[in-house]
Design goal:
Chains A, B: Belongs to the two pore domain potassium channel (TC 1.A.1.7) family. The structure is a homodimer of 348-residue chains. With 348 residues, chain A is mainly alpha-helical. In chain A, 68% of the residues lie in helices and 3% in strands.
Chain lengths: 348, 348
């Protein structure tokens, strides 16, 4: 075994700063940030460039492709605005400007706000609205899962840089801290954004649409939650220009807010379980159960597997799958892998 | 070390049927089924009853409490119906029966359908609607995450029983198969339910509300997606009785459908990564990196940890946490845990 600087990257905190930052960026996924691929594959990247082509290509595929979502959104809105502009005579209600109304109608439909101030008035437009609301919902879902994460992570990296420069704290420590409090931080950012959107919406409705404060607040709530009774909506041209941007960001931000609350809730429960697993007394029965190779003692790795399994982080299925590969690789059946196994495996 | 039947429960498939079934039931969580606590703790339960009280109480707390969600929902709807009945004179629009309209209004609000056929007509009712839409959204989110899982799992267990009786296949095999295809199966069940709800809604609107087929389909789409323009809605007493049940199940089912698509998508990606990690060639560099105790060879447990880390199932943080406990427990600093360590640890 060659003895170079890759020595125990598994247990040491040997990731460099760029890798840590990358890891931070990559670990994000809508539903399963814990099980989603992290860049723990990365360590090998800098040390042995030639072996990492598959890693890189896999991650390019798995990455949240923010740009792609933005393009989808732009195409959807463009197509929507064009189509509903072409059939504008088959839509009835409060109208201002042709193409603006079409875009406004597309957004009110895709976000499921559905005020009803503009409604389809023919079979064609009704069916079009049906098609647009389903595809719009899917697209909004996709956007919710990707868009704000992007913003939050950009901001996190800036924060890390700032802390690193000003407080001279080791960046590893900061990053670990950030990772732990990530959900709380995201929730805070989104809550702040929501407050800004609420205030902006209310002020706009009072000054431009001339609603009283309670009505403006009511219209803001009704819109952001996608309730959209439609008794109060954006009826002026200026109002609709504002609405086009404000409705889209508002509804997405609120959806995200709820998502992060759910995520935080899961994390808190998960942490409670981890804490319980780590503090409960280890008995001789545990040692027997953890003794994977049945040699009468429990090594560090065996103990780690046993505990992580108890925490529910890994399942028996995960372990069995890897064990199958291990047995195939262990050509000399020694119960351990050594460079000689690798050589033997490659020669056969 | 006593030599009883607990021998290697970690790697053998020694969970009995009840435990497997329990595991199946417990593994469900909205966002993080993989990282959510599974009952991998259960193995010790049957073999050493006296040590498992903490396990049981932890899981009672962590379980999705379906009943509790149902109670919340009933209380919410009860309070909503009562309050909006009391302020019925401050709500304008198409009215049928006092308490029915109040319940209908509560449901149209909480699901964010917001037709606008009934709208608040005073500052008080407007603010009430704001309060109800936010709390309703949270409750619907909670319901989406719990309710249908319950139904699906009930059905799965029935299916397992049926297959076990009729085909005489080992239940372990069936359960593993079910676990793997669970998301696909759930998606299928929810899709089927959605078709039923679509058909029922359309037929009802055609026969009772006297809409033409396209209008009925349009109203169904507009409602289930929570778009609710409000140009077509339930205006008769019979219609509103139907709507009360149909809107709630329809919107929740569609939300679940989208959720399962997202889940399936994540699972497919995750599987691709697992496959890649398991099929890529193991090099000497990997062996060095996986050699946790630096003894020059890689044991089974070390290999499992290395691969699971590469799959992103566990993080460095997870490992470090458990390693800390290991080091504390390894009183004689032998690098392994044995019954003597436990005895030493307890005596100090």
């Amino acid at each position: 075994m060659t003895n170079n600087n890759v020595k125990e990257p598994l247990l040491s905190g040997s990731l460099n700063e760029t890798q840590k930052a990358k890891r931070l960026l990559n670990k994000r996924r809508l539903n399963r940030s814990r099980s989603a691929p992290s860049t723990d594959l990365v360590p090998s990247e800098t040390q042995c460039k030639e072996t990492t082509h598959p890693t890189t290509s896999i991650f390019q595929n798995l990455h949240p492709n923010y740009k792609r979502v933005a393009i989808y959104l732009a195409v959807y809105l463009g197509v929507g605005a064009l189509i509903f502009f072409l059939v504008r005579d088959q839509i009835k209600g409060t109208k201002t400007d042709g193409i603006l109304d079409a875009l406004y109608f597309t957004i009110v439909t895709m976000t499921t706000v559905g005020y009803g101030d503009l409604v389809p008035d023919s079979h064609l437009t009704k069916l079009l609205a049906c098609a647009f609301v389903f595809s719009g919902m899917a697209l909004i879902g996709l956007t919710v899962s990707k868009a704000a994460d992007y913003l939050v992570e950009k901001q996190e990296l800036l924060l890390v840089k700032a802390m690193h420069v000003h407080q001279k704290v080791g960046s590893t420590g900061i990053l670990r801290e950030l990772e732990t409090n990530k959900t709380r931080y995201k929730l805070f950012v989104v809550f702040f954004l929501l407050l800004v959107l609420f205030t902006a919406g209310t002020i706009f409705l009072v000054t431009v649409e001339k609603l009283d404060v309670i009505d403006a607040f009511y219209c803001v709530c009704s819109t952001i939650t996608t309730l959209g009774y439609g008794d109060k909506s954006f009826s002026t041209q200026a109002g609709r220009i504002f609405a086009v941007f404000w409705i889209l960001t508002g509804t997405i931000t609120l959806a995200q807010f709820f998502l992060y609350i759910a995520e935080l809730n899961t994390e808190i429960r998960q942490k409670e379980l981890v804490k319980w697993v780590l503090t409960r007394k280890v008995t001789n029965l545990d040692l027997e159960a953890a003794d994977l190779d049945e040699d009468g003692t429990v090594g560090a790795a065996e103990f780690v597997i046993y505990k992580l399994k108890e925490m529910g982080k890994i399942s028996q299925e995960d372990i069995s799958l890897v064990m199958q590969e291990f047995e195939q690789l262990d050509v000399d059946d020694s119960g351990t892998l050594s460079p000689s196994d690798i050589t033997l495996a490659q020669s056969t």
